[in-house]
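User: For my dataset I need records formatted as: sequence, then structure tokens, nothing else. Please produce one.
Assistant:
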Amino acid sequence: MGLLTPLQDRLVYLDTNVFVYALNAFPPFVKPLIELLQGIDERRVRAVTSELTMMELLVVPFRNHDAQAEARCRMILRPRPCLHLADVSLEVLETAARLRAENTSLRTPDAIHLATATLAGSQVLLTNDRHFLGLHDVEVLLLSEWVDAVREE
């Protein structure tokens, strides 16, 4: 099974950590994330993330006054035909509040990500945060397990 096979023909929600690992060239994930971003650019994978992702990515570059890192954050979330940057709307925030009410361990940013994934109609959430497991109807695919499964083939 190829790396992108479980993602094809499904709308994939990309959590912020997917972009953090890509931007920082985190060793175990460099090759798979390059393949994922190429798959998005080549329209083999349809993906969505929240505008919240941009906010989360820009904190460190702003704190460090690092214009190059800021530009990289903006570049990775640039408009692409198969990567939608979803608004943080009132509907998203109300859905996130409901999710937090049902799951008291869920932090606000994660509730916003999960609400966005749900409202966008994502079938799978790609993340490396285990606390998303079992929270909602969206299938959670852990980046570390995804990469390990492909290595074992």
